[in-house]
User: What shape does this take?
Amino acid sequence: MGALYAVSKKAKGGRKYHKKSTGTRGVPVPTLKDLGVSKKEMTEAQSLNSLPKDIFEGLLDGKITLADAKRRAKQKGMAEDAIYHAHS
Assistant: This one.
């Protein structure tokens, strides 16, 4: 769900006084509410989508918990940042 959301058009919201739809060519873009998805669920899906592949696979296999996956991803990101800054 997070990967699909990342590449899809987003509803822009808008004000009550806007006469045009938020979609393209008269086809409205569905909102999260229209899709039955809460903001919290979408945030979680986007977090899962951003996990490195090896960590995500460990989560899917049940080898690690969600909290552990997030911790490992954060540590891995910090390690990658340190490597990048050491070489710049």
The mean pLDDT is 75. Residues 22 and 28 are 6 Å apart (CA to CA). The helical segments are 2-7, 32-35, 39-49, 53-60, 66-87.
